[in-house]
Write a structure and sequence with these properties.
The chain has a two-stranded antiparallel ribbon. The mean pLDDT is about 80. It is built from 2 helices and 2 strands. The longest helix has about 120 residues. It is mainly α. It is about 85% helix and about 5% strand.
């Protein structure tokens, strides 16, 4: 019979632990390989989806730029029309404003003159005015307003 020495037992224990360690490392490397494959697939899928999205975003930005240019052109046209309308308004006011004021003043003068004749005809009858619910005789009114008539 053969007896086993302490060095041989130690060698067997080291070999067993070494085999267990290698087994754990092999499992860890296998799982790492699976994770790398899944990551590679995910990156490929994201790339496949991102390229069309970027193309759509680029088209949308170009379309927005075109619309902004159109709005800018419209705004400048509106500004030009506004300045033209302002100039036209000023021209019309200066051309027709003076004569219209003169015609209105003449019409007012004629009405005053005609109403002055009516007042002379009505001055013969006593006049009564109503002030805040009371009747004041015309004679009293004439005393208070004497010298204030136009």
């Amino acid at each position: 019979m053969h007896t086993v020495s302490g060095g041989e037992v130690a060698g067997i224990l080291v070999a067993v632990f070494w085999a267990i360690l290698v087994s754990f490392l092999a499992v860890a490397l296998a799982r790492l390989a699976q994770t790398l494959r899944a990551t590679t697939r995910l990156v490929a899928d994201v790339t496949d989806q991102a390229v069309p999205l970027l193309a759509d975003a680029s088209a949308a930005v170009r379309s927005a730029q075109t619309q902004i240019e159109r709005v800018d052109a419209i705004a400048s046209d509106v500004q030009e029309v506004t300045s033209n309308a302002s100039a036209l308004s000023t021209t019309v006011a200066s051309t027709f404003g003076g004569p219209l004021v003169k015609v209105a003043a003449f019409g007012y003068g004629v009405r005053r003159a005609v109403s002055g004749r009516k007042d002379d005809a009505q001055a013969k009858e006593p006049r009564r005015d109503v002030i805040v619910g009371r009747t004041v005789p015309g004679a009293r009114r004439d005393k208070r307003t004497r010298g204030k008539r136009d």
